[in-house]
Specification:
The protein is built from eleven helices and eight strands. The chain has about 325 residues and is mainly alpha-helical.
Length: about 325
């Protein structure tokens, strides 16, 4: 091999080739050690290997930095099977413009403040903002206590920041249970796919996502009673316990009207599963039905559950026995 083609960084001492090579990954910026061989070719191979090893070792010891967005997507993957996944994804979409690109170690009350101010400008309720802040806390806690990088180190190598919540004392909106006439007027203003889902919800007490995510394979036939029920799994319900949804005559008619429209989901729109009921169509219908729109009054789908509960109480039936 000509000297022109020889790899630099080798010096021969006492017949043995030694490495003396600048290397930014080595301690002090130099790699200095013996190759243990008198062969120039073997020494060059050893030099190439050692440079790669030193670089790899250095990179392994670098602290991996994960952004909040990366951590959030990891969390969404873990909860994809839960009924709350869609709602949490919507919360995160609103958080990303403010903290998505930040390293998780930099997510704290100070960096979240612009998001809170933006939420206040949009007249979001303190409870809604707190729900989103709760998602932030969950992501940070999992990054510090559960998730590990390739070296087995926590994604967040410090105690997660304590995210402060807004005070909701005296500011929570009051539920608005519907009268029978208000229900009829509201449902007439809803498009068919939402009216079906709302009618089912107000007759079963199911929460919004329990209705949206309802699947045909959750239905259990009861031949001896000539009816069926839906069994919601423990990993799906808000309380974390399995629950049986009993159908009254109205809910049964809704189910039968939906049968055959979709092979997996009960409630759909244009052959796609419903993501939520509290949509712009719901808001327009609420306003068109001349229902209360002033601040301090709930205007969302959860009023259907309050309506269901009030009617049970009026009939002297505890909610737990529905």
């Amino acid at each position: 091999m000509s000297k022109r083609n020889r790899m630099p960084g080798l010096r021969q001492k006492g017949g043995i080739w030694h490495i003396e090579k600048r290397c930014r990954y080595a301690t002090g910026g130099w790699l200095r050690e013996s190759t243990g061989t008198s062969s120039r070719n073997k020494a060059e191979q050893i030099l190439i290997r050692r440079l790669a090893e030193v670089e790899e070792e250095s990179r392994r010891h670098e602290v991996a930095i994960f952004t909040f967005e990366e951590a959030a997507f990891r969390y969404l993957e873990e909860i994809a099977h839960k009924s709350s996944a869609d709602t949490i994804a919507m919360h995160l979409d609103q958080l990303f413009p403010f903290i998505g690109s930040l390293p998780i170690a930099q997510v704290h009350d100070g960096t979240i403040r612009p998001f809170i101010e933006h939420g206040n400008e949009r007249h979001l309720s303190p409870k809604t903002i707190n729900n989103m802040l709760g998602v932030v806390s969950t992501v940070l806690n999992r990054a510090a206590r559960v998730w590990r990088d390739e070296d087995g180190q926590p994604w967040l190598r410090q105690a997660p920041a304590q995210i402060s919540r807004l005070s909701v004392k005296g500011k929570q909106a009051k539920p608005y249970p519907l009268s029978w006439s208000e229900q009829d007027t509201l449902f007439q203003e809803l498009p068919r796919h939402l009216a079906d889902a709302a009618l089912f919800a107000v007759n079963t007490g199911c929460r919004e996502q329990e209705v949206c995510q309802l699947r045909w394979d959750w239905e259990v036939q009861l031949p001896e009673m000539e009816t069926s029920v839906f069994v919601l799994g423990a990993d799906f319900t808000k309380t974390g316990t399995e629950r049986v949804v009993v159908l009254n005559a109205v809910a049964r008619r809704v189910i039968e009207s939906r049968r055959g429209m979709h092979k997996e989901r009960v409630f759909t729109y244009q052959s796609k599963p419903l993501g939520k009921l509290h949509s712009s169509a719901w808001k327009r219908a609420w306003k068109a039905a001349k229902l209360p729109t002033e601040p301090g009054i709930l205007k969302g789908v959860h009023n259907l559950r309050h309506t269901f509960g009030r009617r049970l109480r009026s009939a002297g039936i505890p909610l737990e026995t529905r």
